[in-house]
Amino acid sequence: MTIVDLLEKNAKDFPNEECLVELNPQIVSEKYKTWREASLVEPSLEGEYRRSITWKEFDDTANKFANFLKSRGLKKGDKVAILLMNSLEWLPIYFGVLKNGCLAVPMNYRYTSDEIKYCLDLADCNALVFGPEFIGRVEPIADHTPLVQTLVFVGNEKVPFADSYNDFIDCFSTIKPNVKLTEDDEAAIYFSSGTTGFPKAILHLHKALISSCIWEQKHHGQQKDDVFLCIPPLYHTGAKMHWFGSLISQSKAVLLKGIKPEWILKAMSDEKCSIAWLLVPWAQDILDSIERGDVKLEDYDLSRWRLMHIGAQPVPPSLIQRWLSVFPKHQYDTNYGLSESIGPGCVHLGVENTSHVGAIGVPGYLWEVKIMNGNKEVNEPEEVGELCVKGPGVMVCYYKNEEATKEVLKDGWLYTGDMAKRDKDGFIYLVDRKKDVIITGGENLYPVQIEDFIRKFDKVKDVAVIGLPDDRLGEIACAIVEPKEQYELTAEEVEKFCFDLPRYKRPKKIIIASVPRNATGKIEKPKLREKYIGKSLVQIQLEK
Fold first, then answer.
1. What is the mean pLDDT of the segment spanning 335-351?
2. What is the pLDDT of residue 313?
3. More confident: 339 or 44
4. Under DSSP, is residue 533 helix (H, G, I), strand (E, B) or coil?
5. The pLDDT of residue 236
6. pLDDT tens for each residue of 63-92
7. Taking Cα atoms as reference points, which of 79, 92, 275, 279 lies closest to residue 193?
8. CATH number listed for the domain at residues 3-258
9. Could you tell me if 390 and 412 are in contact, meaning their C-beta atoms sit under 8 angstroms apart?
10. What is the pLDDT of residue 134?
11. Which H, E and C letters describe 42-98, residue by residue?
12. CA Rg, the chain, in Å?
């Protein structure tokens, strides 16, 4: 079985049932101060704000796109890159690629022209589907990617160098191409997030995709009447694999184009959502808005909201304690994963384990976990080593990079590059990225531990700790601290707050500045190193 089979089953079982909703609150906020004002003055905006499709429309559109690709000579094993913002078109296009036997290659919407070209070339892409936000980035490279013979534009404008999706999509048959797919076929190439360097291409089989559906539902118990609010970008394994829980449970999902607290709460209320996956900054913003009185919970019907889960980054325990004090009836879970392990789920906390908030959890359904210190497996509580995972979601390889593959894949085990430890109860805690460990005067410093401590300061919104070169100590810890909007904050205040840390863990330099995060919420430490140390790995790679 593949995920294509799941879509076709849903279209057969519930053809006329709404399955995907797209909400675009920016349309309203550009014209009006409040939703109430918009609904009174211009009720027709509702049609622009909300779009939806049924399971049959989803499947039919995927078949049409598959037949379009076939008409252009694309065949099983060819690669189709997808460069789109979240939209109602995203997932049908993705499934259309798979139905034609091609590999889907989702791309980060923050990529520059050079990075887009680099990734297209690296993945041997034969086609590129892109949206209006990327015209200016795609046009300069359109004639310089020799393998890309088909360019498809998804939008209302006319782009002279690409086919118009809106013009051709209804010209093709809704009968799927006769392409045999098995779970052992290659399905997708995802790119690593680049938080430790330039993106690598990650090859996955259909088996990994269908497995992620199974463990997502196992972990979060999606039922037919659940409604999932999806905010993070669909190009990333995190958002899409959480949505796979909706696919396997035949339930509705909502794509929200925006992250403002009032937009999130309104979407949860209007669409009767029961599950939301948030990133740490979004959860913080919601709580801060409630505490400031900017949003009032009594204005929303959140009675169906049963689960809030967070992933993609270490989660401060204090944040979850705050969340559960405001939403005491919520279940909470955190999910750990990598694109190399087809996204979240290889380790998860479990909704029954909120007493262990702070841990990333225990091995996920169908997964094995071990912690390695060199060639020795770590079994003692609190001993730190590299986290390794094994299961059906482990990648095949880094595409066209045998050397990098050998570094992380050993006897079926994926060496994650994350340093971790177990407590006496067997729960796993992240300590830090292996490459982010700071060695200062012979002592190992784990930035995540320092970051978690500084986040307890009530004036701090976000913090990132990086190592700076030092002639005497080798490296010193530097904390980039972003204050909450309503506070002024000085380096001296942060330094005083850190007095409760052991002396060797205290940051030797403190910078008050914004903390950049990527679209999946991970701190972009290469950008910080580039800014405060020198050239980034991305620059070095592009200059080669």
1. 91
2. 65
3. 339
4. coil
5. 85
6. 999 999 999 999 999 999 999 999 999 999
7. 279
8. 3.40.50.12780
9. yes
10. 96
11. CCCHHHHHEEEEEHHHHHHHHHHHHHHHHHCCCCCCCEEEEECCCCCCHHHHHHHHH
12. 23
Q: Return the axis-axis angle of helices 90-99 and 55-71, rounded to nearest 10°.
A: 50
* Cα 267 versus chain centre, distance: 20
Identify the pLDDT of residue 167. Answer: 96
**Is the sign of the CA dihedral 224, 229, 230, 232 positive or negative?**
negative
**Domain boundaries of the chain, sorted by first residue:** 3-258, 307-433, 437-543
pLDDT tens digit string along 122-155?
999 999 999 999 999 999 999 888 899 999 999 9
246 φ/ψ sector (left φ>0, alpha ψ -120 to 50, else beta)? alpha
CA angle 8/12/16 to nearest 5° reads 110
Give the domain 307-433 fold.
Luciferase; domain 3 (2.30.38)
Q: pLDDT at position 538, please?
A: 38
449-452, long-range: CB < 8 A, 24+ apart: 449/505, 450/477, 450/479, 450/501, 450/505, 450/507, 451/314, 451/479, 452/314, 452/316, 452/317
Question: What value does the mean pLDDT of the chain take?
Answer: 89
Task: Give the Cα separation of 59 and 95 in Å (integer).
Answer: 8
Q: Where does 414-524 have alpha helices with state H?
A: 447-454, 491-497
Q: What gap in Å lies between CA 79 and CA 106, rounded to an integer?
A: 10
Q: Which long-range contacts (CB under 8 A, 24 or more apart) does 421-426 make?
A: 421/371, 421/378, 421/381, 421/382, 421/383, 421/384, 421/385, 422/371, 422/378, 422/381, 422/382, 422/383, 423/356, 423/359, 423/381, 423/382, 424/381, 425/356, 426/362
In the numeric block, the tokens 């909400």 are attached to 23
Tell me if 334 sits within 8 A of 310, measured CB to CB: yes
- Rounded to an integer, the average pLDDT of 38-61 is 81
Q: What are phi and psi of 275, to 5 degrees?
A: -135, 135
pLDDT at 525: 81
Nearest to 4 by CA among 95, 79, 77: 95
Helix-then-strand count for the chain, H and E = 19, 28
The residue among 214 and 27 whose pLDDT is bigger is 214
- Cβ atoms 185, 101 nearer than 8 A: yes
- The class that CATH gives domain 437-543 is alpha beta
The number of residues in the chain equals: 544
| Both structure tokens of 321 | 């304690």
